[in-house]
Input
Amino acid sequence: MTRQDDMLRTAKEVQLGNYAPAPFVLTHGRGRRVTDASGREYLDLSAGISVLSVGHSHPTLSSAIGEQAARLMHVSNIFYNDRAIELADAICARTAFDKVYFSNSGSEANEAMLKLARRYHHERGDEKRVRFVSTVNSFHGRTMGSLSLTGQPKYHEGMKPLIEGVRFIEYNDPRALAAAVDDETAAVILEPIQAEGGIIVGTQEFLEGARRICDERGALLLLDEIQTGYGRTGKFLAQEHYGVVPDACSLAKGIGGGFPLGAMAVVDRVAGGLPLGSHASTFGGNPLACAAGLAVLHILDEEGLVENARVLGEYLAGALAELDERLDATNGTRGLGLLQGLVLADDVDPGATLKAVHAAGLLLTLAGGNVVRISPSLNVTRDELEEGLAILERVLIEAPRKP
Ligand SMILES: Cc1ncc(COP(=O)(O)O)c(C=O)c1O
Output
């Protein structure tokens, strides 16, 4: 038995069965290349599901983490730390937001936004504003609050009762949104692109309409930019494509470049929504995570990666559209910047196709059940994209069909 087989057997024994990972064990990564325990190399155009904004083990990020680990790893939130202050300042400087709260994950950032929304209205004496409006097919996380706002019933199975008072409307339907928001709505939560839902890009009318409706009716607008933020779509935040500023915005995934880090950024007007003592996290704003966050921003600037995401995102969208024309196993493309999806035809087996892609040495993920998601790190090169697309095409020419 090889070392890798041995590890796979142990994994089945000691790890919970809530995931179904591919049958190899990754041990090393650099840039877009990862290696498994048998020494086989893969091209990673998934970036750990939009997380590795600067690629695997970028030397600047790795040394920033190492240096910070040797200097100051953790202090409680009873004390300030320099890294959290610097990172909050840097995020505010780049966005329309005025204040930042740090978490360790996307779900936690969304939890903070939901609590902020309810408490904001409570602080203003508007006790009836406790309800939320979310969208069908959305994904906001797996903790009870964020799960309750996630518009995919399969994730709710066996987890009820969830938090009360959530209404789901069709995505990109401004009329449905207008009909759903009333004087009991604390907030509307939206992704600018429904990423896990299948890379469905929000329309200008929908996002602009959401801002207007929330303003008219006194509800907060929360944008979940956990997957779309930090340069992924070719702008620092996807909301910039729309010119829409929400009251609060959640960030995670790419913000730490692989180090667990999340954030909620808010405008001044709602910052009092989480007053002293109303919310906290032991690890949130920890100097080690924030040093990683600062290094990621440094690399984005130094290497012009938001612009690279825009330029190569356009190239990728065009190349995928051409691929789609050549193949009968696909049924269209959609996306923005370096968050792109290739929709599989109805008779193609998505799970088996993904397995074949991995077996061919390319790491990608599925979104929305039948969409092949290409979400590489922002410092991907055109050559790497071409290489990945060539592998993908070879697999899709012989795409496994549904039984
Ligand atoms: C848009 C969106 N929101 C929230 C989450 C949850 O983030 P996390 O898994 O870090 O809790 C995800 C993760 O895929 C996401 O894509």
